[in-house]
Structure formats: structure tokens, C-alpha cells
Amino acid sequence: MTPAPGRFGLVIHPQNVADFAKKFRFTRLLPGAWVERMFRAVPPFKASHITGIVSATGARAEGWFVGLPWTPRVLLAAPPEATHRRLIEAGRIAERLGAGIVGLTAFTKVVGDRGVSVARALDAGVTTGNSLTAATAVEGALLAAARMDLDPRAARVAVIGATGSIGGACSQMLLGQVGELVLVARTRERLDRLAERLRAAGTTPVTVTSDVRSAVGRAEIVITVSSAIDVLIEPEDLRPGAVVCDVARPRNVSRIVYERRRDVLVIDGGVIDVPGPVGFGLDFGFPPGTCEACMAETILLALERRYDDYTLGPEIELPKVEEIRALMRKHGFRLSGLRRFERKISDQELDEIRAAARALRPRAGAAPSRGAMAPNARNP
Fold first, then answer.
1. CA 66 to CA 358: how far, in whole Å?
2. Do residues 137 and 285 touch, judged by C-beta distance below 8 A?
């Protein structure tokens, strides 16, 4: 007899007003501000049934997307108690559908206390998925650097949003693997505390700044995990040959970078191939058969029948990062190659980017080439 599948729920929300049209076509005809205001009053709802997940071990999982129809702007503006109430409503819908573990995705894991209050209110386990997000962000950035002939041990690496849970974990994992670590975030006091801990834990030089543009302009490798809802990195900010792993949703890197800078490699962080004939039942902005790393963490825990709380709160435990990465390998999940803006980067395109970077990279000791705009500070 085939064992019953592990069951999970994923709480999702629109990244921007245009996303509403993927589920509700009539919204294309309305002003964006009207759409946001209209859906503030709409309670969470079952958005789709997720089927066809089959692990490399033969285990199966099924789940449900539960939609919270609030954009990041609405989530950040709402009182914390209102947001928690909506998230708990969404979690209870997932429980009624049969979910043993509930994953908070995108901004639902950023607002408030990063899942702690939601977990207290639910019988199902809760995770933000941030452990696997951090693991795959670093893995993806280092893979992209290797494809661009960059040696991380000699590279300056900037982490944008370093004081967040994912950024802090990424910074810890990069110790001893990179030449210099630049931590970037809004609050200098929190940056200094993080830097002090990292300096005490390793020999990698660590510096801090709140100036995104300055940090990005000096870095060979950038990992951006900020919770900002606006673009932070523009084409003129990047040095020739830079590698950027953009884990943030909404993205921190402007789409214009792809159009104007053919000498830099920007990749989407945390895109995971899910094994089996997967049907997500909803267009959530990812290629078929793939999902975000935070979603994959929830699915992995369901495959393991691990229905306890996992990654919660402002700090990520590195042993959990290693554990969930091992579960990813065990069940046949993997990084979905190098992608940007939901499109696979071909070998030919990568060769062209690498060749353009070689032609423009500054010689050793020379100042990096930058755009004509005067420096300004952007908040991560």
C-alpha cells in the first residue's frame, strides 16, 4: 500500500498589483490603487492544490497555496496585529485542508516577528523557509562566480540586507570562503554588532556600510536579500564582471541591468527544481516545476513528516541550514541552474557575458569603472 503523502500549506501574496491579474483577470481594467484597496478587505483563501511531488526516495507530498491578497506595500503598512490575524487565518485554512506544516513565503515571513506569533496560534508546524533560502543563496552566488572565472577567496563580497535573518546567515556561511565581506543594511548599530560577531568567529576581513551604491560598486560578488520593496541596484552601480545573486522578492536589482549591462551576471537566487510531475495549479511567477527555496523547505519537511516548527524568528541556526541542505540532496531537489527574471541563462549567453567582462574588468590596482551618476545612499 502506498503511504499517504506528506501535506503542507504555503501562504503566498501578490508581489505587485499586476500579479492580481494572474488569478483575477478583471483587475487588469482597474487602477492599481483601487485593486490594492479592494483586496485589503478580502480574507485569505485556498488558491490552488499542489500535486505530483515525488521525492528521489519515492516519498510523495501534496499541498495547497493559500492566498493572502495583500501586496508588500499593504503588508508593511498594516498594523502588526492585523497582519498576524490574517496570517493565522491563512494558516488555519491550510490546517483544515490537511497541512501538517505551513510555510510563510515572501513578505509574509518578513513582517512582524517572522512567524513566531503565527506558530503559537497554529497546531501545524510553521517555517519561514529561510534556512534553505540562505543555503541556496550562497551556493548560487559561488556557482555563478565560478562560471565567471572569479575566485571567491580573492573577491570582495557585499551582502545587502545583512542584518536580516537570511543576510546574517549568508554572512556567517561566507566566512573563510571569500577575500573580504562587506555588510550593508540601514541600521549602523545592528551592522556593528553583526560585524563584531563575525570578526570574532573568523579571519575574513569584515567592513560595514549603509551606502548600497558604494558597497555594490566595489564588490565583485553581491548577494542581495533586502526586504526593501523598491529597486536598490541600477545599471551604473555595478563594476564590470560583477556577479549578483538577487534573492529578494520583490527584486532588489532593476530589470534595466539585464538590458544595459551585458558584462555583469545577475541571477535569481533560490530557484529550486522540484522532483516529480509537479502541478502547482497557479502562476506564481516561476517556471514550471520550480519554486522558491522557502517553499522547497516547507515541502522537504512535509516529505520527512516533520510537522514541528522549523525556521522562525530573527536568527537562523546554521545546523538547520546544513540539515535542510542535506534533505534537499536526499530528496532530489536541486538549484535550477543559472536563471534571471525566470529565464534560463544559456551557455552562449554566459560566454558572451564572460567575454564582455574580461574586456572591461579593471587591471589589478586600477579603480573600477562606474557610471556617471554621483554617489548617493540607498537604504537596503
1. 46
2. no
Residue 95: alpha-carbon gap to chain centroid: 25
What is the three-class DSSP state of 292?
Answer: strand
Q: Is the alpha carbon torsion for 167, 173, 174, 175 positive or negative?
A: positive
Q: Number of structural domains, the chain?
A: 2
Rg, C-alpha atoms of the chain: 20
| 155 DSSP 8-state letter | -
Query: What's the one-letter identity of residue 288?
Result: P
Do the Cβ atoms of 193 and 122 come closer than 8 Å? no
- What is the per-residue pLDDT across 105-161, written as a single tens digit (0 to 9) for each? 988 998 878 999 999 999 999 999 999 999 999 999 999 999 999 999 999 999 999
CA distance 289 to 276: 8
Structure confidence at residue 372 as a pLDDT band (50, 70, 90): very low
* Residue where the block lists cell 488558491: 47
Please check whether residues 221 and 288 belong to one and the same domain: no
Residues with Cβ < 8 Å from 119, sequence gap 6 or more?
Answer: 125, 126, 309, 312
- 61's enclosing H/E stretch is strand 60-67
Whole-number Å distance between alpha carbons of 268 and 201: 29
The rounded distance, in Å, linking the Cα atoms of 127 and 130 is: 8
* Contact (CB, 8 A) for 9 and 96: no
User: Scanning the structure block, which residue is given the C-alpha cell 538577487?
Assistant: 246
Per the structure block, which three cell numbers stand in for 114? 517572522
Global pTM?
Answer: 0.90
Whole-number percent of the chain with pLDDT over 90 = 74
Which three cell numbers mark 66? 493559500
- Annotate 174-191 with DSSP letters as a single string: HTTTSSEEEEE-S-HHHH
Same domain, 352 and 207: yes
Strand boundaries in 185-309, DSSP class E: 206-209, 221-224, 243-246, 265-268, 271-273, 290-292
Cell numbers of 322, please? 546544513
Query: 29 lies in which domain range?
Result: 6-131+272-335
CA distance 185 to 161: 5
Question: pLDDT for 170-200, tens place per residue?
Answer: 999 999 999 999 999 999 999 999 999 999 9
How crowded is residue 28: how many other Cβ atoms within 10 Å of its Cβ? 11
Whether 89 and 142 share a structural domain? no
